[in-house]
Design a protein that fits this description.
By secondary structure, the protein is mainly alpha-helical. It is built from 21 helices and six strands. A hairpin with a 2-residue loop joins strand 1 and strand 2.
Length: 429
């Protein structure tokens, strides 16, 4: 092995540790004004911009539609945007950076995900046992200046939900679902699939996130139906799932939080309103119908922005101030049907891309189901993960070659004047 090869190998190993840290600590940062600023996501964007300069960015029609729809929505509804809303829009646009990553970087990113998941799940399990408040580390598990308990929806009655390093259990579970789906062929996961499935189910139970319970059931049912001829595999998946549930209940029993599972499960079965989601959506549509003909059509096409006032309805149903719109409906009403359609296309691309691997299907469908009723895609880096899931196959290889035109996508190359810069940069690596 040459010194050069050894040096490149060392740099790649260090890069994987760096990526692991970014994934495992997505909320490390500081509150700037009223905006929580995390360090991890801007670094992902910077890495993507560097790769875009060297090799271009691979945008397919659904991505072009997404970008165009967001920009048009911003121009039409600019007066309704606050600084926080502009930051949200910037995060959505920047989430397309995986489309610029090189094949080697994507492989390093996928290789870093298993360890990041271990850190998140292990810290979450400890948090579920000893309590959330004891384990909070300002600037690492949450931004400096943020009050985790008051600024995040993490209370379940008298109990505080385990959130690990995410400050919110919903995006944590969505991240674990998609991470499992895209990492399924990593050796550390592929050789112990049952153990990983049981671990994710265990964390789902400990998190008290009912949306993740429903999502896992839907994912398991989908994969089981597609593989209904393979009883052995379906039986193993169901067995490890049940073991994860039982272990989760055993962990919570000594802490006195076992009754929280029962309470939330009973509410899940009896609450037809979905914790205010149904009534919130109904109230939203009633308000939307009050718009005139032209305003209504414009709103459907480009969204109604952030001009809709839902705080009174939110207070009535006892939830925290903010929009009761959840899930994909947020994209339809906030940004319009064009952005809404492109989001659904990205979800469909991720599901289609990961089909063929039974356990990957479980988790990608679970993620798609959870996004139906939760605003997880507005939480960085989760749309980033969805884009990644739609563009990388289960073996960790890029579906399309970097740069240039492709049969099913659109790409661009650098102008001739910058080619020498690109080649010099590549030789230096």
């Amino acid at each position: 092995m040459s010194v050069y090869s050894a040096g490149i190998g060392l740099l790649r190993r260090r890069a994987r540790w760096f990526y692991t840290t970014l994934f495992a600590l997505p909320r490390a940062g500081i509150v700037v004004g009223a905006i929580p600023f995390s360090f991890a996501f801007p670094l992902w964007v910077i890495i993507g911009l560097r790769d875009a300069v060297l090799g271009g960015i691979r945008l397919k029609p659904r991505h072009w539609v997404f970008v165009g729809g967001l920009i048009a929505s911003l121009l039409v509804n600019f007066s309704t945007y606050s600084l926080f809303n502009l930051a949200t829009l910037a995060v959505l646009l920047a989430s397309l950076v995986p489309l610029s990553y090189t094949r080697e970087r994507l492989d390093d990113i996928l290789s870093s995900l298993p360890l990041a998941m271990v850190v998140i799940m292990l810290f979450g399990a400890i948090q579920a046992i000893v309590g959330v408040e004891i384990t909070l580390i300002e600037g690492i598990t949450h931004p400096v200046g943020e009050n985790v308990l008051n600024d995040n929806p993490i209370r379940a009655g008298d109990h505080v939900k385990m959130v690990s390093t995410f400050t919110n259990g919903n995006p944590m579970m969505f991240f674990l679902f998609l991470s499992m789906a895209v990492s399924m062929e990593r050796r550390v996961i592929s050789q112990r699939r049952g153990l990983w499935l049981g671990a994710v189910v265990l964390i789902s139970v400990l998190s008290l996130v009912r949306g993740s319970w429903v999502a896992l059931v839907v994912g398991l049912a989908y994969a089981g139906f597609r593989g209904r001829g393979n009883f052995k595999v379906n039986f193993k998946m169901a067995t490890y799932g049940v073991l994860g549930v039982l272990l989760g209940m055993a962990v919570l029993w000594p802490t006195g939080n076992l009754d929280a599972i029962v309470d939330r499960f009973v509410v899940l079965l009896t609450d037809a309103d979905g914790n205010g989601r149904v009534s919130g959506a109904v109230t939203t549509w009633k308000e939307v119908w009050h718009y005139g003909g032209f305003e209504f059509v414009r709103g459907v096409l480009w969204g109604f922005g952030f001009d809709l006032d839902f705080d009174m309805e939110r207070a009535r149903i006892g939830r925290q101030p903010g929009s009761p719109i959840e899930g994909y409906l947020t994209f339809l009403l906030r940004f319009g049907v064009i952005v809404f359609g492109s989001i659904l296309a990205m979800v469909a691309a991720a599901v289609r891309n990961l089909q063929g691997d039974r356990l990957a299907e479980v988790f990608v469908v679970a993620a798609a189901t959870q996004a139906l009723a939760d605003n997880v895609l507005l939480f960085p880096p989760l749309l980033f993960m969805l884009v990644l899931a739609g563009e990388v196959d289960v073996r960790g290889c890029v579906v399309d070659d970097p740069g240039g035109r492709r049969e099913d996508g659109v790409g661009w190359k650098l102008p001739r004047g910058l080619k020498s810069i690109r080649m010099a940069a590549r030789r230096s690596l």
